[in-house]
Amino acid sequence: MNRPRLAVSLIFFVCGFIYTSWSSRLPRLQDLLDMDNKTLGLMLLASAIGSLCSMPLTGWLTVRQGSRFATTLSVGLFCGSLLLLSLATTTWELFAAFWVVGVCTGALDVSMNAQAVLVEKQQGRPLMSTFHATFSVGMMVGALAGSLFIELSPSLFVHFGAASLFCAILSFWAVQQLITDAPTPVDDQATSSFQLPSPALLGLGLIAFSAMLSEGAMADWSTNYFKNVVGASEAAAPLGLTVFSGAMMTGRLLGDWARQRLGDRFLLRYGAALGAIGLALVLLIPLYPVSLAGLAVVGIGLSTLVPIVYSMAGHRTDYAPGVSLAMVTTVGYFGFLVGPPFIGFLADWQGLRLALGIVVVLLIATVLVSGLSQPVRTGPSVNVPSSSKMQ
Question: Which residue ranges run through the membrane (predicted)?
Fold first, then answer.
């Protein structure tokens, strides 16, 4: 594995690790500030709003300064933003902290995926699913670390501080190995990040919306579901998220191989179907072993949806990669925007099981529309742009 590929993999790992570092402690934050599910949903809404604010700006920054600069800036801020959550003493402070975390998350999502597209082009083959597998590795390790810190019972500041320092050390090496891409000429219409997506990109964005809402629902609510519905202990509850992340990792490690043999359309359609079946199993039989198995099925099903959509967007020729990725991720992140508060409101009204049932319905709808997507071609003919150089 060459250095740019390893560096991008590490940055994806850092993103997943920090994400589950705080999502595994949501029950603790909920208890500390005495929040109901509706209020917690609003906290998660703040994160989604922050991401939506930063994504178009990151597309613009990637065009003007290159994805290496944007990735370096966003991963540094992302590592530091985690500490803000542990310092909040009121719900308003926590809302602001989640907004900042969301800004950093959205910026990193766009910039690191733009770097991933450059590595795909340099290697001449699909790699996006593998990169997203390292995100799932980070999620799994972060969830395990969350269980460990819960067992040791340190403060949130100790947990989040240790996670931030660990990720900062990894990121310091990684950003020095990224591909340097020159700024794109600003007079090209395809480089304008402040425009509406084309119908093709909008279709990709809608699939991303469904997939990201489903992934976010599992990441944000599975720990609560295991604790409050399944009846798991506080230390055992995050293990559901660990199983989900591990299944996502496994599916994504095999995803690039599967794309070459089965095709993008097949994986989009049957992945969404598998996710719906697995989540239905979790909701219909809320027993700990069955729910763990169900989340594993959900993870396998959802594993390749977002990587395929991101790769398809990044390889389009009618937009600069950073711009097309910003468009698709912005539409997709509306799933994170509407998902957490909607699930929270519905959970307080009718219960968390019914609220998560909406995700099953959405995945079934994704099965019906995913057949309209067009696969992306990646192969030896795809090269790194001449404006890029290896470091």
Answer: 39-57, 69-88, 131-150, 156-175, 196-215, 235-255, 267-288, 294-313, 325-346, 352-372
CB neighbour list of residue 50: distance below 8 Å, 6 or more residues apart: 98, 99, 100, 101, 102, 103, 104, 105, 106
Higher pLDDT, 113 or 232: 113
CA dihedral of residues 282, 287, 289, 295 (deg, nearest 10): 20
Strand partners, 388: 181
How far apart CA 86 and CA 164 sit, in angstroms, is 12
Residue 373 has pLDDT above 70, yes or no: no
Q: Which residues face 292 on adjacent strands?
A: none
Q: Crossing angle of helices 255-262/305-314, nearest 10°? A: 70
> What is the signed CA dihedral for 349, 352, 357, 362, rounded to 10 degrees?
80
Q: Which two tokens stand for residue 222?
A: 């599975």
Residues of the chain with CATH 1.20.1250.20: 1-179, 198-375
- Rounded Cα distance, 203 and 331, in Å: 10
Kindly indicate the confidence band of residue 190, based on its pLDDT and cuts at 50, 70 and 90.
Answer: very low
Model confidence pLDDT, tens digit, residues 5-50: 999 999 999 999 998 899 888 888 888 898 887 788 788 888 888 9
Per residue in 74-127, pLDDT (tens digit) is: 999 999 999 999 999 899 999 999 999 999 998 999 899 889 988 988 888 888
CA-CA distances (angstroms) from residue 198 to 207, 320, 350?
14, 13, 38
Architecture of domain 1-179: Up-down Bundle (1.20)
Task: Give the chain's end-to-end CA distance (angstroms, integer).
Answer: 14
Neighbours of 349 (CB within 10 A): 11
CATH code of the region 198-375: 1.20.1250.20
What pLDDT does 240 receive? 86
